[in-house]
Design brief:
single chain; alpha+beta; Helix Hairpins; Heat Shock Protein 90; five-stranded mixed β-sheet; two-stranded antiparallel sheet; 7 strands; globular
Length: 340
């Protein structure tokens, strides 16, 4: 071995001794490509920063608490509305039977009228119970929804066919914009048809004149489509008493109102029943129908939004009567991912 070889050997040994500590630290550093090592590193970071972990846990707990409180408030409101909806027809049935049992009817014809009205209230109560049971079973999974790709134009055509005749009978104009046949949504076709029919039936029952317009507004950037239902129902249609239990008149007053209505051939007084004449498909009040539609849409990953309500007072300066008296509901649905 020559002198040059000895020089290179000594230089290599010296370099190795100098870089050995840095090389050892490099080999001991965790490789973040492995999940176990990533989790171990995250644990070490959390252990070194406990305040960050506690803050995240508190934020998650607060979010869960507010969500639970909101759901409890919604359940309480739904229960209050359900109790009121059931109480109204039951009060009418009891009052009608009391008129007969206390011999307040003048003749058999009045008794027969009381029985007929009680029978009608019973049928409405049965329809109400069927609607509530359907919503409850759907929400709790007893009745499974069939979520699938649905052509929106087909559903809207069916809803128009079911509601157009009723609108014509009440001298109202129902119009539905042409829908692109390429728009498909992810929904249960039967439930979606029921929701649209209910949302269209509501203004038909409440309006005395005007138009009902249904328009489609796709939002592909958000993977959803909005169905707008514009109508011109009165502003009073959006006002409901906060105390549902005190909304109905007392039994004695209700009996007197019903008896006067029978003798003067007028329908039941508004306070005795929340049902409106016109559509057998909507046996509930407007507020209850909206809550039912909201629950069914939530189960289909959609939502119901109230975008506009009519102003109760005089229209603002520069606003037309039509724009100030307009109500607008938006039914938001997710677009189908695998549309045919």
């Amino acid at each position: 071995m020559g002198f040059t070889s000895w020089v290179f050997l000594m230089v290599g040994i010296g370099v190795g001794l100098i870089t050995r500590p840095q090389l050892s630290r490099l080999l001991e550093r965790p490789q973040f490509g492995q999940p176990e090592q990533v989790e171990a590193h995250r644990t070490n970071v959390e252990a070194s920063h406990p305040d960050v972990v506690i803050h995240q846990a508190v934020q998650e707990a607060l979010q869960a608490y507010y969500l639970s409180a909101e759901m409890n408030q919604f359940r309480a409101g739904f229960l209050a509305r359900t109790s009121h909806e059931l109480r109204s027809p039951l009060s009418s049935i009891i009052s009608l039977h009391q008129l007969i049992l206390t011999d307040l009817c003048e003749d058999h014809d009045e008794e027969r009228d009381c029985i007929n009205q009680a029978y009608g209230a019973t049928q409405k109560l049965l329809a109400l119970l069927d609607s509530l049971i359907l919503v409850s079973k759907t929400e709790y999974g007893t009745v499974q929804q069939s979520l699938q790709s649905v052509q929106l134009s087909t559903i809207l055509d069916e809803a128009y066919a079911l509601t157009n005749l009723l609108a014509k009978n009440r001298n109202l104009r129902l119009s539905v914009d042409a829908v692109d046949p390429e728009i498909w949504v992810q929904a249960d076709p039967r439930r979606l048809q029921q929701i649209l029919v209910m949302l269209i039936d509501m203004p038909i029952m409440l309006m005395e004149e005007g138009t009902i317009h249904v328009s489609i507004h796709p939002r592909p950037e958000q993977q959803q489509v909005d169905i707008w239902i514009d109508d011109y129902r009165p502003a009073s249609a959006w006002r409901e008493p906060l105390d549902f239990m005190n909304a109905s008149p007392p039994p004695e007053r209700l009996m007197h109102q019903i008896l006067q209505g029978i003798r003067h051939h007028t329908p039941l007084p508004p306070g005795s029943s929340r049902f409106q004449p016109g559509s057998p498909r909507l046996p509930v009040s407007v507020g209850m129908a909206l809550m039912m539609c909201q629950i069914l849409l939530d189960m289909m990953n959609g939502r119901l939004e109230l975008l506009e309500t009519p102003s109760a007072g005089e229209p603002a300066q520069g606003a037309t009567l039509e724009s100030s008296g307009r109500s607008r509901l938006a039914c938001c649905l997710p677009l189908a991912v695998d549309s045919p």
